[in-house]
Structure formats: C-alpha cells, structure tokens
C-alpha cells in the first residue's frame, strides 16, 4: 500500500506518468470495437424483458423436493408459454411465465399445486399487466433525458461546452456497453435494472468531473507560456488523479461483485442479479471512459481552438530552436500553468520527471557557484 501511495504522490507531482492523451487513437479504437459489439448483441439477441414490462404471472411455491426441471415442464405444458424457474435459497421455487392471461394463470397454478402435492392456495400467484411496465419505461426515459440535459447545462456553466460534450459522449458510451452486456448474457431487464442504470450515471460522472476540475485549474492562462501544449497539460491532470480513480473504482466494485457473484450466483437472488450486473458493468465502464475517453476528447476538441493551435505551434517552434542549439527543451523560467514550477515533462514520451534547480543549472553551464568565497 505504501508503494501505491508513493506512486500516487509521484503521479500527482508529475514525476512519473503515462501518455494517455497522446495514445488516444488506441483508446478510441478499443471503445468503438466494444461499442459495436454491444450494439450488434443488442440488435441480434435483443433485451430479455421481465414480466414487469411484457406482462405475465409469477408463481412462488413452498419448499419442495421436486426438481426445477420438472416444475418448468409442468408450467410450460399448462400455460403454453416458456417458463423460467429459479430456486430461491434451499427450498422454494419461483416460476415466471410471460404473456399469461388471468384464466391461464389459474390453470397453471392448479397444475403446479397438483405436481407439488399441495393445495392451490399454497402456490402464490402474482399477475402483472404490461401497462405497468410501459409506465416504468416511460418514466425511466424521461428521467434519463432530464438527467442528460441538466448534466450538459451544469458542465457547460461550471467548466465549458467542450467538457460538457465529452462527458455526454462518455455517458452514452457507458450506457451502451451496459445495455449491450445485458443483451449478450441474457439477463432479464427488470425495474432493478432500470435502478442500476440510473445509479451508474452519477458515478460515471464522478471521476470525469474530478479530472475536469484539475484540468481547468492547470490550463488557466495556458497561452501565456510556451512549455506545454494543452494535450500535455490534460495528460498531467489525468495522471494526477489516476490512482484516486483506480482506488475509488476498486472500492466500489468489491461490494457490487459480492452481490453479483455470491448473492446472485450462489444464493439465487434474482433482483440482486438485475441490479448488481448493471452496477458492475456500469462502474467499470465509467472508470474506463473517464480516463480513456472523456479527457482525450476534451483535448481533441480544445486543440481545434485557434488560440490553442497557435500555442502548439509556438511550443513546437521553441523546442525545435532549443534542439538546434543543443539546449535542454525545458526553460526553468517558465511556470507550469496553474501548478508548481518544479517539474518538467519530456514532450516526446509524455513521461514526467523532476528538473534541476536554477542554481544547479547555472552551475552546470560554468557559472560561478553561489555561496561565500573562501
């Protein structure tokens, strides 16, 4: 842990780093490939909507020794529709049949009770109409649209419109991947899924806003210096929050993984599957997009600004002139915008390291050392 903390401090101070922004085309390619896979899965397999959206009946049996396969066959033969049977804990069974009318549900209830050898009232039956699911879907879409609009307005006011666009693209990226994973694994889409999807939106923005805030501070008066381009400063801000983003994501994923793999996998809790899968995929996608998508997109959009273009030309011209003279590319008199002026960055590799002090640099060029003469 001490090594990780030391790494985080060195990343924050700019002593080490990775060129995330410089390699943005790689990340864009990976994201496009994942997104296309998710869209294809969604188009080919589609979403497996639960009865809350399609309508149907749910039967809950008392504790029984009858196998789930036998119950499934009984439910399908009596109802004429596909049945999904899930074992609850170590005894009861949950049978879900979509598109089932009230009359058919009574027939199915009687058949299940006969198979189990219990009275009909021992088999609990819940009938759900599709109109209720339509209301949930409409409210979910309305909430999502309002959330997106408010996010764009807030980020445009608090930061700038380029950051608002980048954050919106990252959110759409996260939602597309999460929904695509649901289609590929065949999990049911239930109200719990909707809750999970709406929950991950806020978390997806958390790391993005933290990086944007640091980038806003670091890029103040950026055009008044000639040491760094906007993309290089964006990369420094991203490296400065990298360890915090990783720590936050890992801490959030651990309990969600417990819900998904233990609660849903071993205990057979259906609602836990619905919520935890959305949270697990959404949290992981949100952490990825904040690091590899949002900040590089801001840098791409910002580099189109005429002032930032002119700054990049000045930086390249200065470095070329210094290289021609055989001098170091750094200028100790320049300060890093919005931060300490005690570090420098290798523009070619994006790896950051400490620079020499002014006095030491003068001494290396043959100047008189400071201090009392003897």
TrEMBL record:
<feature type="transmembrane region" description="Helical">
    <location>
        <begin position="26"/>
        <end position="44"/>
    </location>
</feature>
<dbReference type="Pfam" id="PF07549">
    <property type="entry name" value="Sec_GG"/>
</dbReference>
<keyword id="KW-0812">Transmembrane</keyword>
<keyword id="KW-0811">Translocation</keyword>
<dbReference type="InterPro" id="IPR022646">
    <property type="entry name" value="SecD/SecF_CS"/>
</dbReference>
<dbReference type="InterPro" id="IPR022645">
    <property type="entry name" value="SecD/SecF_bac"/>
</dbReference>
<keyword id="KW-0813">Transport</keyword>
<feature type="region of interest" description="Disordered">
    <location>
        <begin position="320"/>
        <end position="374"/>
    </location>
</feature>
<dbReference type="InterPro" id="IPR005665">
    <property type="entry name" value="SecF_bac"/>
</dbReference>
<feature type="domain" description="Protein export membrane protein SecD/SecF C-terminal">
    <location>
        <begin position="112"/>
        <end position="303"/>
    </location>
</feature>
<feature type="transmembrane region" description="Helical">
    <location>
        <begin position="275"/>
        <end position="299"/>
    </location>
</feature>
<comment type="subunit">
    <text>Forms a complex with SecD. Part of the essential Sec protein translocation apparatus which comprises SecA, SecYEG and auxiliary proteins SecDF. Other proteins may also be involved.</text>
</comment>
<dbReference type="Pfam" id="PF02355">
    <property type="entry name" value="SecD_SecF_C"/>
</dbReference>
<protein>
    <recommendedName>
        <fullName>Protein-export membrane protein SecF</fullName>
    </recommendedName>
</protein>
<dbReference type="InterPro" id="IPR055344">
    <property type="entry name" value="SecD_SecF_C_bact"/>
</dbReference>
<keyword id="KW-0653">Protein transport</keyword>
<dbReference type="InterPro" id="IPR048634">
    <property type="entry name" value="SecD_SecF_C"/>
</dbReference>
<feature type="transmembrane region" description="Helical">
    <location>
        <begin position="140"/>
        <end position="157"/>
    </location>
</feature>
<comment type="similarity">
    <text>Belongs to the SecD/SecF family. SecF subfamily.</text>
</comment>
<keyword id="KW-1133">Transmembrane helix</keyword>
<feature type="transmembrane region" description="Helical">
    <location>
        <begin position="164"/>
        <end position="187"/>
    </location>
</feature>
<feature type="compositionally biased region" description="Basic residues">
    <location>
        <begin position="362"/>
        <end position="374"/>
    </location>
</feature>
<feature type="compositionally biased region" description="Acidic residues">
    <location>
        <begin position="337"/>
        <end position="346"/>
    </location>
</feature>
<keyword id="KW-0472">Membrane</keyword>
<feature type="compositionally biased region" description="Basic and acidic residues">
    <location>
        <begin position="327"/>
        <end position="336"/>
    </location>
</feature>
<feature type="transmembrane region" description="Helical">
    <location>
        <begin position="246"/>
        <end position="269"/>
    </location>
</feature>
<feature type="transmembrane region" description="Helical">
    <location>
        <begin position="193"/>
        <end position="215"/>
    </location>
</feature>
<comment type="function">
    <text>Part of the Sec protein translocase complex. Interacts with the SecYEG preprotein conducting channel. SecDF uses the proton motive force (PMF) to complete protein translocation after the ATP-dependent function of SecA.</text>
</comment>
<keyword id="KW-1003">Cell membrane</keyword>
<dbReference type="InterPro" id="IPR022813">
    <property type="entry name" value="SecD/SecF_arch_bac"/>
</dbReference>
